[in-house]
Amino acid sequence: MATLYVTEPGSRIEKEYRHLLVTLDDKTVLRAPLASVSHVVLVGRGVGATTPALHALLAADITLSLVSRGGELLGRLTGPSGKNLELRRKQYARAADPVFCLAFARQVVAGKLANYRTYALRWRRGRPELPAEWLERLDRAAAEAPAAPDLASLRGVEGAGSKAYFA
Fold first, then answer.
1. Global pTM exceeds 0.70
2. What's the rounded Cα separation, in Å, for the pair 138 and 160?
3. DSSP 86-105
4. Within its chain, how far is the Cα of 146 from the centroid?
5. Strand blocks (E) in the chain
């Protein structure tokens, strides 16, 4: 499928049956089957589209982009994103569940601190002068993360681990 660029000032996109028309001075310059267009780009201020054409683009899930003469993207018109709608609903439901959020956050923080520890051990190999206390503080934070009673405590544990790591 093709991208339709409309660049001539004074031209506009119209809809006729199952086709998009590009008109200039009330004359049809181009006629393209709606099914063969995947994207429409309107370039500059002097180009436009009729409301029926916009409705047809939305119904056919064809994106319309508005671009300045200099090539800067000004905005897009896209249809509703129905893809993975059920997945999004489940994600929102999980985000509203405080028990799940705490368990998930614990795993994220524990993973972050474990990665800190791995990198710190590698970095310390060539530097035996670094104090062991540095790693001990990081280990303490990593051990506390899975048992944090709430998100505020978990944030404190994460902060202590990050402070130890960046010391």
1. no
2. 8
3. HHHHHHHHHHT-HHHHHHHH
4. 29
5. 2-6, 11-16, 19-24, 27-33, 37-43, 48-49, 63-67, 73-77
Report how far apart, in Å, the C-alpha atoms of 37 and of each of 8, 44, 65, 145, 154 are: 19, 20, 13, 52, 51
Cα–Cα distance for residue pair 141/112, rounded to 1 Å:
11
Residue 71 has φ and ψ, to the nearest 5°, of 95, 5
Quote the tokens at residue 142: 């990593």
Residue 65 burial (CB count, 10 A)? 17
The string of DSSP codes covering 125-140 is HT-TTS-HHHHHHHHH
One pLDDT digit (tens) per residue for the chain, 167 residues: 799 999 999 999 999 999 999 999 989 999 999 999 999 999 998 899 999 999 999 999 899 999 999 889 999 998 877 677 888 889 999 999 999 999 999 999 999 999 988 888 888 787 777 777 878 888 889 899 999 999 999 999 999 999 888 87
CA distance 110 to 118: 12
DSSP state of 5: E
